[in-house]
Amino acid sequence: MPVDRRDRDLIRAWREFATSVRVQTGASLVSWAEYLATGRGRTDERTLVAPVVFPAFAERLLSWQLGRTLAAEISGVEGRPDFTPADAVTHPFVFDTKSTSDWTTLGGHDDQVHRYLTKGHPRIRQVVVTNLVGIRVFELENGTLRDTLRVNLAGLLGGTLEQAAALPDAARFVLFVDRFRFRHLSRPEKLARVREAHAWNPPFEATSPEWVLERLDSVVQALSKDVAALVDSGALTDVSIVPGYQRPAVLRELRDLEERLGGCGFRSNPISRFG
């Protein structure tokens, strides 16, 4: 049976990732594929999987941007997931990393995953547990925890590309990428999703202060560019659009913006037209 081209391309991307990402083991720097081939039973979630390998995997194969579209969390007593999408409406799931000591079984985490899905419900509908050796996806079905998708990533590194792409795990990996990659929605699509969204759940969705500040800063920069473009285009020079009783307030706001966004280049000085 011929192998689907997309399946082959994704398996090739995974194999290239595993051979190009380098990790430290003892005094040696080896590829992730070599690291997996040299042994099992390592407690490496906090030293390799979470800080190095998963972020690279998320960026290169799932199109996430760590610190922008995906937040890396520091788990606490409340059991916060390791990686949370910024757009919770579009991506109703979280990622949780484990050490390679779990190998492909990724067992023994049912209580933790169940807590995410119950305490985080209805915002968190799926939990992806991975150590970049295997992947398991969990959901609640009628209150019962079930894994709905399993992928043996290590098994896709052996044999030829054609042989690996023909394995059942290859099709499951393609399905995983389709479901959990970053999705960019248009503004109308986002608004539609927000209208359907459930209430925010702070204990499971609050992100690190640094990440929140970085996102706020990016919003401020975008607003600054928009204000500069509007001012330069002369959009604010038509005072007829501003009712007379509102002009003093508008003037104060514009002057404050001019001071705060001083580098934006108010060439025509439209603010003076309100004075």
Could you say which structural class the secondary elements and strand pairing correspond to? alpha+beta
Helix content: 40-55%
Shape: globular
Strand proportion? 5-15%
- How much is the radius of gyration in Å? 24 Å
Strand order of the largest sheet: 5-6-7-8
- What is the terminal separation in angstroms? 77 Å
Q: Main sheet?
A: 4 strands, mixed
SSE succession: HEEHHEEEHEEEHHHHHH
Task: Let me know the number of strands.
Answer: 8
* Number of helices, counting only DSSP H or I runs of 4 residues or more: 10
Overall mean pLDDT: 80
Low-confidence stretches: 262-275
Question: What would you note in describing this structure?
Answer:
- The chain is an alpha+beta fold.
- The protein has ten helices and eight strands.
- Strand 7 (134-141) and strand 8 (144-152) form a beta hairpin.
- It is globular and about 70 Å long.
How would you summarize what this structure contains?
This protein is α+β, with helices and mostly antiparallel strands.
State the main characteristics.
alpha+beta, two-stranded antiparallel sheet, four-stranded mixed β-sheet, 275 residues, 10 helices, disordered C terminus
Question: What does the secondary structure layout of this molecule look like, with pairings?
Answer:
Blueprint: H1 5-20, E1 22-25, E2 28-31, H2 32-37, H3 45-62, E3 70-72, E4 83-85, E5 93-97, H4 110-119, E6 126-130, E7 134-141, E8 144-152, H5 161-165, H6 168-180, H7 187-196, H8 202-205, H9 209-233, H10 247-260
Parallel strand pairs: 5-6
Antiparallel strand pairs: 1-2, 3-4, 6-7, 7-8
Helix pairs in contact: 1-6
